[in-house]
TrEMBL record:
It comes from Lactobacillus panisapium. It comes from the Bacteria. Residues 325-483 form the Glycosyl transferase family domain. Pfam families: Glycos_transf_1 (PF00534). This is Glycosyltransferase.
Length: 507
């Protein structure tokens, strides 16, 4: 069995998760058993699987694994199942109910759209939150949080199996600047009890038990180096361990010789426990070989895959697309440098009012969406709110590409650029900064798109203007983009997996 390791699968996922899903489908198509293996608790995951064309058999989550709910049928769990005293009053509120004992509010109940229980918040006599119960979308209580009523700090979490037994507990302690998980108690599927210091140790236990469950010698591919690689290499059972990079491997995006970003390659002992390293492109593989000087093989395998269905679709001429429609598909994060694309667009728009720019992507919630706010302010300050639109996250992108005439990419760095590959497969040329590494591996410069000197907004704008001034150029580049995408068909990408992973695994 092949396991692709990551932390979570959300409804709005990044390129890494989309790449994993495409790879999983390719493996299934070729008759090779594989699954996504996720670390983080996610009570919405099984509701999200159909968004990616997946089912329960394609996915294992650490909490599901220890709870025995990897394959758990949908149940009905409504407010009627709760043991609320008959004397209490139940009041309907937005998205749920409030429960009162006389004048005192004791509970706040929220519901999913199917009326299944979502959360229950409990209150003491002083209206302080004492605990919260969280329900899995499939209809069972999955975990509880307990709070310090004097300051609302989280102090304890317990995770439940459907029979209400606890298998995972976390104790918290408030430090001067953060809330620290000070101890984890895990009872695994065999009934063995562990006292752990971090979630990574629990993930390692799951990986070992998965490996034993499959008879040993499974292959684990870590797709989130900073999250899943150390738990993978700390496994005690014999298995094949592969680290798959999706981004650059060094700290200063301008200098491949700057400090190494990940302990899995900076630490010689950790690196020696890895059987193979995969990069998205050959240039990065070559740079890594020079830098690491290791005996661990380093190979390049394209990250994205263009489906046969997409390659077989009729080509859409530029004349049938929305005139002047430019798109950006990227997370609204600082490293995507979307402000440069906006400024370049603004220069061109002054002379070509037929252009519009749609930006698709979700913001960085970890810093209160600071970059999204900055970008929207930039658009407002430029007076371009009528032609630059923030469209939010899009899970289905085919229609977006099929109507677009151009895509922009102005990232600081890209190990791989799945959106560039996707755009080209829909005949959409890409104008991108020439950065390490993705765009130059994917774009045939001045043929299927254009590579612009990194950080040069004026040249970026000049290339956009040039592209829209010549209808023949647009048609030529569109056809070249369609052609270039053939390099990333399932059959072509599978040749790499067979050569470097599948066939060597059998040796």
């Amino acid at each position: 069995m092949y396991y692709f390791l990551n932390n979570r699968l959300d409804s709005n996922s990044s390129g890494i998760e989309h790449a994993e899903v495409k790879r999983l489908k390719l493996f299934k198509q070729k008759g090779v058993k594989a699954k996504l293996a996720m670390r983080d608790y996610n009570r919405f995951a099984h509701r999200n699987l159909p968004l990616y064309g997946l089912n329960d058999d394609d996915y294992v989550n650490m909490y599901d694994f220890f709870a025995g709910t990897v394959n758990y049928p949908q149940q009905k769990m409504t407010i009627d199942e709760l043991p609320i005293p008959e004397s209490d009053q139940i009041k309907k509120v937005d998205n749920g109910y409030e429960v009162y004992d006389g004048n005192r509010k004791t509970m706040l109940i929220t519901l999913f759209s199917d009326n299944n229980l979502d959360t229950i918040t409990y209150f003491n006599a002083d209206d302080h939150k004492t605990k919260m119960d969280f329900y899995d979308t499939r209809g069972f209580k999955s975990f509880t949080q307990i709070f310090n009523t004097s300051n609302d700090n989280l102090i304890y979490e317990s995770f439940y199996r459907p029979d209400n037994t606890v298998y995972y507990e976390v104790s918290y302690e408030q430090k001067p600047k953060w809330l620290a998980a000070t101890n984890i108690q895990l009872t695994d599927k065999k009934g063995v009890q562990y006292s752990l210091m971090n979630i990574g140790q629990a993930f390692t236990i799951m990986l070992d038990e998965l490996n034993e469950q499959d008879g040993g010698q499974s292959t684990f591919i870590s797709d989130r180096s900073n999250i899943t690689n150390l738990p993978m290499i700390n496994m005690k059972t014999p298995a094949r361990k592969i680290e798959h990079f999706h981004s650059i491997h060094y700290g200063d995006y301008r200098d491949p010789n700057s400090f190494l970003s990940y302990g899995s390659i900076a630490n010689t002992e950790q690196l020696s426990k890895t059987d193979l390293i995969i990069t998205p492109g050959q240039r990065q593989a070559d740079d890594m070989k020079k830098r690491l000087r290791t005996q661990v093989p380093i190979v390049a395998i394209p990250v994205g895959i263009v489906s046969n269905e997409q390659l077989a679709k009729p080509h859409i001429p530029m004349s049938q697309r929305i005139p002047g429609k430019i798109v950006i598909l990227a997370r609204l994060f600082v490293e995507k440098r979307i402000g440069d694309s906006i400024n370049a667009f603004a220069q061109v728009y002054q002379k070509n009012k037929n252009l519009t720019l749609d930006i698709y992507g979700y913001p960085d919630g970890s810093d209160n969406c600071k970059e999204e706010k900055k970008l929207k302010k930039l658009v407002k300050d430029l007076g371009l709110e009528n032609c630059i639109h923030f469209m939010g996250y899009a899970n289905q992108v085919d229609d977006i590409y099929d109507h677009a005439q151009l895509m922009l990419l102005s990232s600081l760095y890209e190990g791989a650029s799945l959106v560039t590959m996707e755009a080209q497969s829909h005949g959409v040329p890409v104008i991108s900064y020439d950065i390490n590494y993705g765009p130059s591996d994917l774009i045939n410069n001045n043929v299927s798109g254009v590579l612009v000197p990194n950080g040069n907004v004026d040249v970026f704008a000049d290339e956009i203007a040039k592209y829209f001034s010549d209808s023949n150029l647009r048609e030529r580049m569109s056809e070249a983009a369609y052609e270039n995408a053939k390099r990333f068909s399932g059959d072509e990408v599978w040749k790499y997996w067979k050569k470097y992973v599948i066939d060597t695994d059998k040796a």
